[in-house]
């Protein structure tokens, strides 16, 4: 019996040592700044909720910085290691002669995330119906506004001539302005658009995402110096993201909604599921982290159309696709 007990103790020592080593492994801390909190970013919250980042040895600290300018300030000042924000911000920073530019290394969303919402139900909607109306648009210079104007022009509408375009309302107050009576039509993100439908305040009649084509709408970027000095961390981050992107594609919507619900305390789970389905079905979620070259130049065409492109920037200058390619090929 003593021998048997001794053998059991000896056999258990390697397991105990292995467990202790695993528990003692140091996690790499990553400060992540997101431009806003949105179901539009579902794969990111899945990566956090399902432990994909942790399994890569990353302890991700998520902060919502509420706006492109503040998000880029956090990244460039060192307040964040990685930023989730519109790809256009990297072009703005680069045009200002940044010594340590922001490099886009992974894509999260590949369409615009806003919807056209009318105050009254509209049967057989045609974009021509917007002419002569008051349109409550997004903040000038941001991707929603640029995509909005791009789509209007593609539909034969001159935004600054054919309708009354309101762009002087802060992003956070656009929904409440429409609810209080401003505008005949409004450009809204989810879940506000769906909530307005449920409350009878507005009606979703079209999608700017389906109308504008594929574009690197929301991407992950980091400073060039961080990428050069800590490429392994960026690679681990991208691998976890890719797992989340595949998980979102293959799981039932209800499972996705349950997974990310803790990030949206004020939104009912059934609404989260409905919004996720809407974004998924219109192809908003990128299936891989790869930011495609044609989408990069389509983004700049949209910026140029809006008069916001400081200078055309080569794909290779601000996009690193090496990591995404490597992970997809694994």
Automatic annotation (TrEMBL):
SUPFAM superfamilies: Periplasmic binding protein-like II
Entry keyword Signal: yes
GO CC, one annotated term: periplasmic space
Broad class of where this protein is predominantly found: periplasm
Keywords: Signal
Location of this chain's protein in the cell: Periplasm
All copies of domain SsuA/THI5-like, residue ranges: 42-251
Alphabetized Gene3D superfamilies for the sequence: Periplasmic binding protein-like II
Signal peptide: 1-23
InterPro entries per the UniProt record, alphabetical: SsuA/THI5
Family assignment from sequence similarity: Belongs to the bacterial solute-binding protein SsuA/TauA family.
Official protein name in the record: NitT/TauT family transport system substrate-binding protein
Species: Salipaludibacillus aurantiacus
Lineage: Bacteria, Bacillati, Bacillota, Bacilli, Bacillales
């Amino acid at each position: 019996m003593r021998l048997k007990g001794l053998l059991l103790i000896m056999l258990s020592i390697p397991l105990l040592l292995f467990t202790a080593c695993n528990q003692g492994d140091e996690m790499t801390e990553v400060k992540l700044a997101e431009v806003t909190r949105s179901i539009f970013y579902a794969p990111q919250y899945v990566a956090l909720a399902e432990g994909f980042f942790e399994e890569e040895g990353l302890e991700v600290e998520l902060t919502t910085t509420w706006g492109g300018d503040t998000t880029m300030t956090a990244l460039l000042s060192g307040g964040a290691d990685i930023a989730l924000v519109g790809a256009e911000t990297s072009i703005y920073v680069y045009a200002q002669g940044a010594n340590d530019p922001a490099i886009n290394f992974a894509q999260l969303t590949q369409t615009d995330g806003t919807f056209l919402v009318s105050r009254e139900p509209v049967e057989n909607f045609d974009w021509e119906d917007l002419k002569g109306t008051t349109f409550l648009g997004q903040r000038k210079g941001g991707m929603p506004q640029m995509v909005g104007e791009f789509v209007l022009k593609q539909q034969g509408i001159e935004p600054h001539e054919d309708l009354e375009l309101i762009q002087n309302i802060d992003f956070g107050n656009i929904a409440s302005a429409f609810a209080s009576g401003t505008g005949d039509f409004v450009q809204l993100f989810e879940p506000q658009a769906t909530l307005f439908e449920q409350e009878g305040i507005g009606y979703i009649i079209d999608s700017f995402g389906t109308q504008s084509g594929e574009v690197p709408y929301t991407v992950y970027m980091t400073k060039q110096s961080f990428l050069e000095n800590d490429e392994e961390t960026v690679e681990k981050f991208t691998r976890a993201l890719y797992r989340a992107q595949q998980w979102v594609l293959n799981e039932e919507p209800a499972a996705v909604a349950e997974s990310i619900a803790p990030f949206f305390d004020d939104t009912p789970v059934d609404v989260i599921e409905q919004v996720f389905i809407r974004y998924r079905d219109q192809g908003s979620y990128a299936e891989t982290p790869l930011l495609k070259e044609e989408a990069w130049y389509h983004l700049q065409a949209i910026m140029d159309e809006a008069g916001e492109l400081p200078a055309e920037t080569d794909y290779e200058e601000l996009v690193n696709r090496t990591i995404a390619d490597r992970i997809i090929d694994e």
